[in-house]
Automatic annotation (TrEMBL):
CDD domains: Flavin_utilizing_monoxygenases (cd00347). It comes from Geodermatophilus nigrescens. One of its GO terms (cellular component) is cytosol. Residues 48-340 form the Luciferase-like domain. This is Luciferase family oxidoreductase, group 1.
């Protein structure tokens, strides 16, 4: 289980060359501008959101475009979520989607944000991710969570046993998973009798996800990287990451604590445009909180939605604005949490706007785009 590669691609100040043949425009390219070095790595969290009037195939094609843009722009990794029975989310099976995105990209790490382990047998998850790692060595992350990623009825359908709705066995299942993926610290358990793959040469990087002290302490005790779900909107990020650091014990995977903090982020060329584009995402979050699930509304639908005022009044830690404003707020978040890496989730109706947001943030943050040879 290797350490998650986290080296930021940080120049000391440079001119961005967006590539392409001389005289030809590069679609979606950033202008050649002087930028400051990247303070720390940035990554992407994707839900494969389904918008009003869109199909599942549209949503997955959009996520592929986002992954390719993140790959080109210098983001460190892209993770896909696990959610079930939700009209606005097509990311129901992270391993399948990871296989597709890894094949459609060249450099970026691809992983789960995350696999909800109580929904799955540890051996099945280990086999899936050992296979992904063999196909794309050094590029696969296995983010693990303990929430169901859905409602109780769907969780029962997934687990096939109402008695299995709790997460009491999560620590043991996590240990079994680590053992199956080659963690020699794990004694006993499934790894004594089973192997995830016949002859591995590397292992996926395992990261524990959470939004509570329980996951923070467990990640620290096991010496794993910890990703805090700040994009959920909860107020506990500082307390959780501090508890993680206090609980941390060095491991073969990690010598020092490593914290990823997620955030809802949407940048546009102007603050006015950014706030307009953010409204569909606000309405989706309101729908989730009130259990009135629906696809992400279009911009026109959002503008006239009867729930607009309620969505805009809802407390939120979403980072929205022009590139300079967004970069400043992200620096504040990194400073407040001591994060080693920030992971951005952009929620709006159109994929072009999500890709543009990534481009603007990358330029303002100082990421180094990949330069494709002519």
């Amino acid at each position: 289980m290797p350490l998650v590669p986290v080296t930021a691609r940080r120049p000391s100040g440079h001119v961005v060359d967006t590539g392409g043949r001389e005289g030809e425009p590069v679609p979606g390219a950033l202008p050649q501008v002087m930028i400051e070095p990247a303070p720390l790595p940035l990554s992407v969290l994707e839900l494969a959101t389904v918008g009003s009037g869109q199909s599942t195939a549209d949503a997955l094609a959009a996520t592929t475009r986002v992954a390719q843009a993140a790959d080109r722009l210098g983001y460190t990794r892209i993770w896909v979520a696990e959610h079930h029975n939700m009209p606005a989310v097509a990311s129901t099976n992270p391993p399948v989607l990871i296989a597709h995105l890894a094949a459609a990209t060249a450099r970026i790490r691809v992983g789960s944000g995350g696999v909800m382990l109580p929904n799955h047998a540890p051996l099945v998850v280990a086999e899936q991710f050992a296979l992904l790692e063999a196909l794309h060595p050094g590029r696969i992350d296995l983010g693990i969570g303990r929430a169901p990623g859905t409602d109780a009825h769907t969780a029962i359908a997934l687990r096939r046993d109402p008695a299995a709705l709790g997460a009491e066995d999560f620590p043991q299942h996590l240990l079994d998973l680590l053992g199956l993926l080659g963690d020699r610290r794990v004694e006993g358990g499934l790894a004594e009798r089973f192997t995830a793959t016949p002859a591995p040469t590397s292992s996926p990087a395992v990261v524990l996800l959470g939004s509570s002290g329980f996951s923070a302490q467990l990640a620290g005790a096991l010496g794993l990287p910890f990703a805090f779900a700040h994009h959920f909107g909860g107020p506990n990020v500082q307390a959780a990451v501090e508890l993680y650091r206090e609980s941390f014990r060095p491991s073969p995977a990690l010598e020092r604590p490593y914290t990823v903090v997620t955030a809802n982020v949407l940048a546009a060329d102007t603050e006015e445009d950014a706030r307009r584009l953010a409204l569909p995402g606000q309405l989706m979050r309101l729908a989730i909180r009130t259990n009135r699930l629906r696809p992400v509304p279009s911009l026109e639908e959002a503008r006239t939605d009867p729930e607009r005022a309620a969505a805009e009044a809802m407390p939120s830690n979403t980072v929205v604005g022009d590139p300079g404003e967004v970069a400043a707020q992200l620096r504040e978040l990194a400073t407040a949490t001591g994060a080693d890496e920030l992971m951005l989730s952009a929620s709006t109706h159109g994929v072009a706007e999500r890709v543009r947001s990534l481009e603007l943030v990358a330029g303002a943050w100082g990421l180094v785009p990949e330069v494709t040879a002519a």
